[in-house]
Amino acid sequence: MNKAELVSEVHKVLGNDTSLAAAERAADSVLQAIKRGLKRDGEVHLVGFGTFSVAHRSARKGFNPHTRQPMKIAAMKLVRFKAGSSLRGLR
Fold first, then answer.
1. What pTM was computed for the model?
2. Which of 8, 13, 40, 60 is the most buried (most CB within 10 A)?
3. Which segments within 1-91 are labelled E, that is strand?
């Protein structure tokens, strides 16, 4: 599912009395709230859905796959997601 399909699904859930632009604003608002929560608290818990958390990956040695030359990979932050109970049983 891409963003356009997500907005379409949000529009269907909100009903025909809501515009597609309003559905896009609603989807963007949720995504922005998750980003702000991760920046501020480091975790966002959505009961029944899952938990987003910030993880730290330390610097490490790697290699360029084209030239096989060694290189240093910088430390970084990344977002992890652990599925909640309602998503674990999906098939």
1. 0.78
2. 8
3. 43-46, 50-57, 60-63, 70-73, 76-83
